[in-house]
Amino acid sequence: MKKNAQLIEEINDALTDLAWGSVEIYVQDNIVTQITVKNIKKTRVSPKSSKSSSENIKNKPQVLTNKKEKYINVYNN
Fold first, then answer.
1. What's the CA gap between 21 and 41, in Å, rounded?
2. 49 within some domain
3. Could you tell me if 25 and 32 are in contact, meaning their C-beta atoms sit under 8 angstroms apart?
4. Residue 11 belongs to a domain
5. Domain coverage including residue 33
6. What is the pLDDT of residues 30-58, one digit of tens each?
7. Which position has the higher pLDDT, 20 or 53?
8. Residue 58: inside a domain, yes or no?
9. Cβ-proximal residues to 40 (8 Å cutoff; 6+ apart), any chain
């Protein structure tokens, strides 16, 4: 019974120190062999706004290809 209490304490410690993430418990032959803690770091940085990226796409020349007739058209909007 002492081993079970120690195992529960180890799992509890893994969960206590975890803000975001997961705790995985690996079992082999009915014995817990490993406790893996995966921490996730959340960020407050947002990606560039979609407006600026869509403006960049509009400003770039677009290339149209037609393989059958073997020609390339390049044009700007």
1. 8
2. no
3. yes
4. yes
5. 2-39
6. 999 999 999 988 888 877 655 555 555 55
7. 20
8. no
9. 20, 21
Give the chain's domain count. 1
Could you give the CA distance from residue 59 to residue 52 in angstroms, rounded to a whole number?
Answer: 11
18: number of Cβ within 10 Å: 14
**Does residue 21 come out as left (phi exceeding 0), alpha (psi in the -120 to 50 range) or beta?**
left
Nearest 5°: phi and psi at 11?
Answer: -65, -40
* Contact of 37 with 17, CB cutoff 8 Å: yes
List alpha helices for the chain, DSSP H.
2-16, 50-59
H or E stretch at 17: none
DSSP for 61-72, written as a single string: PEEEEETTTTEE
- For residue 26, tell me if it sits in a domain: yes
